[in-house]
Specification:
alpha/beta, Quinone Oxidoreductase, Chain A, domain 1, 6-stranded parallel β-sheet, 25% strand, globular, binds NADP nicotinamide-adenine-dinucleotide phosphate
Length: 333
């Protein structure tokens, strides 16, 4: 099979197309031929070892001390089951699926094996393979932070910084689905998009201040890392919450204490990759309550260019990679 691999950290130039043996599924695994995948912020961090200031060592501990531990990136995919292990009863060969290897990576390849009872679900018929591949990374992060960790409620007001990114655009839509009143923050070129996906108000951070003492929210979510606690606290109601999906290192470490002293709560950490969250967001997409925003679509051979676009930090939603045409997939019985 073909795959995109890297053996040293760096710019997109470190990526190369290689050939590897196609993996054989273990008794509890399925083998999936990938139709589409994405280049996510997770791929960008792992490839470039870009971490919040002061957390470089943490990055190396997570991704590999001297060189990358996982040499094939790719956090999410859609595809078709082409082979299954002897114990697998929950999937059939030919099933269209959505998978979320997440921090295990491995989706920038022609094939991937996944535990059948893991982070993989059937693709609803009303979702294209392209949309399906772009669901897991952004939407599971948004769902876990807003629904599970923050317990965002109907009628609450929420400010979402970075509302046009993969995570931010999912936050806007999931917050609207919950029934919150959403203010999204983005640059001018993305104002129309952020309105279109449901935001009630949009702040253009280039022309307006994001936080003003006159507009306070129940919840302030930062998906970019540009809102410090020192700033954001003035926009949070007493009893309200700041959600740090991306943030400054000092706020990650001391924000909880500072927030508590101000009668507020800081929620941070890492999003759960639990399979039930993937199932929940795919269901939201199937019922039309969530639609991943697709920015550009690249071919597999344009992997370096796709990474370079993600490296700008300005992508709109998700950057897609097409890997195979579903009509060309032969099922291995
Ligand atoms: N804690 C966790 O478990 C977890 C999980 C997943 C992701 N993350 C982190 O979440 C972050 C976001 O991920 P992502 O996939 O959403 O990234 P992304 O798609 O690359 O974000 C790009 C978006 O950020 C916006 N942006 C850039 N600078 C901005 C600014 N100063 N103010 C407001 N918006 C700005 C851009 O909009 P404009 O072009 O309009 O500026 C662009 O649309 C990453 O740092 C990622 O590592 C954390």
């Amino acid at each position: 099979m073909f795959a995109s691999s890297y053996t040293q950290y760096g710019s997109p130039d470190v990526l190369e197309r290689i050939e590897l043996p196609t993996p054989t599924p273990k008794p509890n695994d399925i083998l999936v031929q990938i139709v589409a995948t994405t280049v996510s912020a997770g791929d960008w961090r792992a490839r470039s070892l870009t971490m919040p200031k002061g957390l470089g060592l943490v990055g190396r501990l997570v991704f590999g001390i001297t060189e990358p531990r996982k040499q094939i990136l790719g956090t999410e995919f859609s595809g078709v089951v082409v082979e299954k292990g002897a114990n697998v009863t929950s999937f059939e060969i030919g099933d269209a699926v959505i998978g979320f290897p997440g921090a295990s990576f491995g989706a920038h390849a022609e094939f991937i094996t996944m535990p059948a009872n893991g982070k993989v679900v059937r693709k609803p018929d009303n979702l294209s393979f392209e949309d399906a591949a772009a669901i897991p990374f952004g939407a599971t992060t948004a769902y876990d932070f807003l629904v599970n960790k923050t317990k965002l409620q109907q009628g609450q007001t929420v400010l979402i910084n970075g509302a046009s990114g993969a995570v931010g655009s999912a936050c806007v839509q999931i917050a609207k689905h919950i029934g919150a009143h959403v203010t999204g923050v983005c640059s001018g070129k993305n104002v129309a998009l952020v309105k279109e996906i449901g935001a009630d108000n949009v702040i253009n951070y280039r022309g307006q201040s994001v936080i003003s003492p006159t507009d306070t929210y129940d919840v302030v979510v930062d998906t970019v890392g540009t809102l410090s606690w020192a700033q954001a606290q003035h926009g949070i109601k007493v009893g309200g919450k700041m959600v740090l999906i991306a943030g400054k290192t000092s706020d990650m470490i001391f924000g909880g204490i500072k927030a508590k002293l101000a009668g507020k709560t800081m929620i941070g950490g890492v999003a759960s990759e639990a399979p039930d969250i993937l199932a929940a967001v795919v269901q939201l997409a199937a019922q039309g309550s969530y639609r991943p925003v697709i920015d550009r679509v690249f071919t597999f051979d344009d992997m370096q260019a796709a990474h370079a676009h993600v490296d700008t930090g300005r992508k709109r939603g998700n950057v897609l990679i097409t890997v195979a045409q579903p009509s060309n997939i032969e099922f291995v019985a």
